[in-house]
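Field log, afternoon session.

UNIT: design team B
ACTIVITY: writing a sequence onto a fixed backbone
BACKBONE:
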């Protein structure tokens, strides 16, 4: 069974447990208002940890974002985030790897998306 939350709905991790045992997708704050936590480092860590709590062993997390050091737009977007949010930023590959590892994820990969300035960060839990 699958469920999508639109940007107009309140995302609830407790409800998500019924749906997201194999895959959790997280879009950048720029595109998915429901994931406004993709701003401050401590909130990113919390969001990734919460995702690990609903996945079954072998479940995948996939995060689309601009990774600083890989995306040509990440530095400019970071300046925009800092100017328009309290703690917004963009983050490095090393930071994503640390957050995911700390939450129990393995087999972390970062893929440059063709014809986009974003990256897809994937990892498996357990």
């Amino acid at each position: 069974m699958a469920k999508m939350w639109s940007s107009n709905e309140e995302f609830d991790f407790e409800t998500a447990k019924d749906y997201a045992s194999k895959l959790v997708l997280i879009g950048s704050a720029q595109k998915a208002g429901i994931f406004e936590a993709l701003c401050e480092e401590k909130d990113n860590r919390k969001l990734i940890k919460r995702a690990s709590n609903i996945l079954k062993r072998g479940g995948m997390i996939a995060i689309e974002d601009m990774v600083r050091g890989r995306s040509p737009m990440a530095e400019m977007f970071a300046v925009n985030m800092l100017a328009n949010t309290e703690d917004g930023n963009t983050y490095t590959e090393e930071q994503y790897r640390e957050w995911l590892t700390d939450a129990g994820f393995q087999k972390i990969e970062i893929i440059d998306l063709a014809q986009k300035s974003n990256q897809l960060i994937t990892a498996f839990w357990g």
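LOG NOTE: The helical segments are 13-16, 41-54, 74-84, 93-102.
NEXT ACTIVITY: expression trials, pending approval
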